[in-house]
Design brief:
By secondary structure, the protein is α/β, with parallel strands linked by helices. The protein is built from 6 helices and 9 strands; from the N terminus they run E-E-E-H-E-E-E-H-E-H-H-E-H-H-E. The protein has one domain: Rossmann fold (3-Layer(aba) Sandwich), CATH 3.40.50.720. Helix 1 packs across helix 6 and helix 2 runs parallel beside helix 4. The radius of gyration is 17 Å and the shape is globular. The chain binds NADP nicotinamide-adenine-dinucleotide phosphate.
């Protein structure tokens, strides 16, 4: 039987949307190591074959039907985008794409998983936002608008589904994953990005994966409706 810190826990059934790269893949590896069962839905299921996970297809740009086991104890939605442009160059299609992948995809997947999450009686949902919601940043209008909507959705659902289902959001700053590749693809860019953060570093997938695992576990049983800023201090700290 896996342990949940000091708590002895049953193996949980966790729905993972995305999970093929970056923070999602690190989370899948962590959940497997903790003895939980991952039920994945992703755009490129073959990317999870080496972890011996048979994933069902899911494209957040055009969500189709999903099937889940009778009981889900956790749900994590990873699909996201970074499309940075000045406001005057953003098209309605840019806004629509960011809303589709980040918000509407999550809504479709959550609605399909809801009966199984209710069946758990004690489930936890984790969604992803960005530091650019709490801290205004140039070029971020489209993604910040989409992720701001995700934060609002999460708080509403946390209220609507309490006490049976907890809902929390993680809002990272720049994290070294394929999504952020173009922003971190040289030593110069990496150094400059690190220096923008009070903690003088960018995030690693593992920094976020351990928090996801915590939010899915009984150790966070008293937390819901929260936005957790894992951002090296960027949204809240000045060092001068
Ligand atoms: N990395 C950062 O700097 C950063 C900063 C702030 C917030 N975030 C948020 O953190 C979350 C995880 O990002 P990450 O950095 O781990 O990115 P990542 O390494 O690029 O992983 C993104 C995941 O989302 C999946 N995905 C993307 N578009 C999809 C679609 N249309 N349908 C289904 N799946 C799709 C990808 O699947 P494929 O493998 O099929 O492409 C992949 O599994 C995202 O919500 C992102 O917005 C990241």
């Amino acid at each position: 039987m896996p342990t949940d810190g000091n708590l002895k826990v049953m193996s949980k059934h966790i729905a993972i949307i995305g999970g093929t790269s970056g923070i999602g893949r690190a989370t899948v590896a962590q959940l497997q190591a903790d003895g939980h069962t991952v039920h994945a839905a992703c755009r490129t299921p073959e990317k999870l074959a080496d972890l011996e996970i048979v994933a069902q297809p899911f494209d957040a740009a055009a969500p189709g039907p999903l099937t889940w086991p009778e009981r889900l104890d956790g749900f994590v939605y990873f699909p996201g985008s970074i499309s940075l442009k000045p406001f005057h160059r953003l098209t309605p299609e840019d806004f629509q794409r960011d809303l589709q992948v980040n918000l509407f995809g999550a809504i479709a997947a959550l609605q399909s998983a809801l009966p199984a999450l209710k069946a758990s009686g004690n489930a936890s949902v984790v969604l992803f936002s960005t530091v650019a919601v709490a801290q205004g940043m140039p070029m971020h209008a489209s993604i910040a608008a989409a992720k701001g909507a995700v934060e609002a959705l999460a708080k509403s659902l946390a209220a609507e589904w309490a006490p049976a289902i907890r809902v929390n959001v993680i809002a990272p700053s720049l994290t070294d994953t394929p999504l952020a590749g173009a922003l971190l693809n040289s030593d110069l860019k990496k150094e400059a990005a690190a220096k923008r953060h009070p903690l003088q570093q960018v995030g690693r997938s593992e920094d976020l994966a351990t928090l996801v695992a915590h939010l899915l576990s009984g150790h966070s049983r008293f937390m819901t409706g929260q936005v957790l800023h894992v951002d090296g201090g960027l949204s809240s700290v000045r060092t001068f």
